Amino acid sequence: MEQCAVSTFALFEVPPIIETRLWDNEPSDKCYAVIKASKSPFFPRLFHGEGIRYACLFQGEKAETYAKSAPYLVELPKGHEILPRLFCRNGENYVEGINYGERNIGTFFRSDAEFEELLNHFRKWLILPDYTGHYYYLRFLDPIALEEYLDRLQTYPTKLAAFFNGKMIKKVFCIKHGDELIEYEPIVDLSTFKQAKNNLINLKLKPLPNFTIDRYAKKLLKKLWNNTLNLLTLMARIS
User: Fold this and answer.
1) Of all residues in the chain, what percent are helix, strand and coil, respectively (each to 5)?
2) Longest dimension (CA), the chain
3) What long-range pairs does 54-62 form, CB within 8 A, spacing at least 24?
4) Is the peptide bond before 44 cis (omega within 30 degrees of 0)?
5) Is 17 exposed, middle or buried (0-12, 13-18, 19+ CB in 10 A)?
6) Would residue 91 be called left, alpha or beta, if left means φ above 0 and alpha means ψ between -120 and 50 degrees?
7) Which residues contact 131 (CB under 8 A, 6 or more apart)?
8) What digits encode the pLDDT tens for the residues 135-161?
9) What residue stretches are annotated with the DUF4123 domain (predicted)?
10) What is the three-class DSSP state of 183?
11) Does the model's pTM come out above 0.85?
């Protein structure tokens, strides 16, 4: 059974290599995460209990119906006691059931934007149409899906500008499979590009180097792209 007492986590610390990616030294810098509640029976109750700001990306009746499995935007104050819980994993301080660091719980974003601004932005990206009018759930909160999506999206700077909303999102950071740290940071000013409409793309093109991508891992995972990659490997089609 998962334990949530603060004292349980006294021995856990956020690794420096992660902390430096969550915050900068700028006073206006903020860190957010989009986390899927289904990754733990204590989400989103844990957020409420810790007094941190959070909101469901779903709205209205859908937010109530899927409260225990929906994606949530969470603001992560620097130094908050919840942070070690999100990054702890197997090891000498391992507590059974608490290893969120190995669960692909979500994706982290560095931004100067206010909470409501970012919430409204991500709600627009949760469900997108393709060019045939079919709608898909874009799993950008899943590190594996997000990596593949952004790698291919580099071919389309106007769509990158739309996802990052110009300069709203400064950096994207996620942990894949518990041991691979992936970071996306624009090296061009995306606010200079006209933002494309929010719809899915043909993923058959090779990416261009619009980003610096740092990978820190115990094992370097090499990916071979398949030109016939199906969209359903990235998104679950919804009715």
Assistant:
1) 30, 20, 50
2) 53
3) 55/115, 55/119, 57/119, 57/122, 57/123, 57/126, 58/126, 59/123
4) yes
5) exposed
6) left
7) 199, 200
8) 888 888 888 888 888 888 888 888 889
9) 31-153
10) strand
11) no
Q: What is the pLDDT of residues 199-220, one digit of tens each?
A: 665 443 333 333 333 333 333 2
Task: For residue 38, give both structure tokens.
Answer: 């289904």
Q: How big is the chain, counted in residues?
A: 239
Both tokens of 124, joined, read: 């627009």
Q: What is the 3-state secondary structure (H, E, C) of 121-147?
A: HHHHHCEEECCCCCEEEECCCCHHHHH
Structure tokens at 191: 């606010």
Best mean pLDDT range from 10-14, 90-94, 173-177, 224-228:
173-177
